[in-house]
Automatic annotation (TrEMBL):
GO terms for cellular component: plasma membrane. Its EC number is 2.7.13.3. Residues 151-364 form the Histidine kinase domain. The chain crosses the membrane at residues 20-41, 61-82. GO terms for molecular function: ATP binding; phosphorelay sensor kinase activity. This is histidine kinase. It catalyses: ATP + protein L-histidine = ADP + protein N-phospho-L-histidine. It is a multi-pass membrane protein. Gene3D superfamilies: 1.10.287.130, 6.10.340.10, Histidine kinase-like ATPase, C-terminal domain (3.30.565.10). Residues 84-136 form the HAMP domain. It comes from Tumebacillus avium. Keywords: ATP-binding, Cell membrane, Kinase, Membrane, Nucleotide-binding, Phosphoprotein, Transferase, Transmembrane, Transmembrane helix, Two-component regulatory system. It is found in: Cell membrane. It holds the Pfam family HAMP.
Length: 364
């Protein structure tokens, strides 16, 4: 039978071709069997020609044998056709259907025979692949939405904390007339900047779909104005953590062209991270050179471990210390994504003094 199948090449034929080929084989086999049965019946008839009981029973026996031959041939032909052309692909498709119903799309449908069932399996594989792609896209969308919600909640805390600090400062010293009018106006202007930032942030939260869709709005700004705003935020963040702070700068230009809100968002995450891990002091280094604005935050803490250096910029990585586990692990990941959106990058390392060192670069 295997030699016959190989000779006829049934496995490479289409269903119709294999059905016709098997029918031809079936007809040849049945006709041959019927001819042999006629010869057998004729010999029986001649043998029992003079027998007292006669040979009347030979014809019904011959007819019965022919019917049995035809019936057995049909069953054998149908069984062979099913086994060769239908059984394996149907089992493959049934198994694939069960896996899909269980939301398991990590498999492949493969059946190479060159017939219609092979085409059907290929179509099923395309459907599975598309379902897997759609499922992954949906999952990414859900994850990004959840990630964005966590990011927004994380980043709104810093400007709110700064605003709270300014409010406490004003309510404490204003009744005592210990604040000059100039200092009061300067405080209110700084608070206004953060209020406007939060308004724009909330508007972005309502319209943004993915983190990569966050718009970039560059504007020209004096480097002294930008650094003064960054220093004010860093001073407030360090003071809230009970740490000291200082900064230095090197610049080859007096103006920069960048998204101030984005830079502030990255900077506040870096400064909060540095203040959290510093033992007592945080240092900020500003560098403007060849159209690249860099901000480096250094702390005098224990520095990053080997695992931290590998995974610090991954989302939701909190590190091993107990204080970090209270955070959401999004700060440096946010910085990395936003720096890349501003055509820059983020680098995490340890300083030569042993503390942590995080550098953000922005194309300006």
């Amino acid at each position: 039978m295997a030699k016959l199948i190989s000779f006829l090449r049934l496995e490479r034929m289409t269903i119709l071709q294999s059905f016709i080929a098997l029918n031809c084989v079936y007809l040849v086999a049945v006709l041959t069997a019927i001819v042999l049965e006629f010869e057998w019946a004729e010999r029986i008839r001649q043998r029992f020609a003079g027998h007292p009981s006669g040979d009347d029973w030979v014809l019904p026996a011959q007819i019965l044998a022919m019917l049995l031959t035809i019936g057995i041939g049909v069953v054998l032909m149908g069984s062979l056709f099913y086994k060769l052309k239908l059984k394996k692909p149907l089992e493959i498709l049934m198994d694939a259907s069960e896996k899909i119903s269980e939301n398991d799309l990590g498999f492949h449908v493969s059946y190479d025979s060159g017939d219609e069932m092979s085409v059907l399996c290929d179509a099923f594989e395309k459907m599975r692949s598309q379902l897997e792609s759609n499922f992954k896209a949906l999952w990414r969308s859900v994850e990004e939405r959840n990630q964005l919600n966590a990011i927004f909640a994380h980043d709104l805390r810093t400007p709110l904390s700064i605003m709270k600090g300014y409010c406490e400062f004003v309510t404490t010293y204003l009744p005592q007339n210990r604040i000059s009018e100039e200092k009061l106006l300067d405080t209110f202007k700084t608070m206004e900047v953060h209020i406007l930032r939060m308004e724009r942030y909330v508007e972005a939260m309502n319209s943004i779909q993915k983190l990569d869709d966050m718009p970039i709005h560059k504007q020209e700004i004096e480097i002294d104005t930008l650094i003064a705003l960054l220093d004010a935020s860093a001073l407030r963040i360090a003071a809230q953590s009970g740490k000291t702070f200082d900064s230095c700068r090197t610049a080859d230009s007096t103006r920069v062209f960048l998204d101030m809100d984005l830079v502030l968002q990255v900077f506040e995450n870096m400064a909060a991270n540095g203040a959290r891990h510093a033992s007592s002091h945080v240092k900020i280094e500003y560098l403007l050179c060849d159209g690249i604005f860099s901000v480096t935050v250094l702390d005098n803490g224990s520095g990053f471990s080997d695992d931290d250096l590998r995974m610090a910029v991954l989302p939701f990585y909190r590190g091993e210390d107990s204080e970090a586990t209270e955070q959401q692990g999004l700060g440096l990941y946010i910085c990395k994504v936003l720096c890349e959106k501003h055509e820059g990058g983020l680098q995490v390392a340890n300083s030569s003094f042993g503390g942590g060192k995080v550098t953000a670069r922005f194309l300006c």
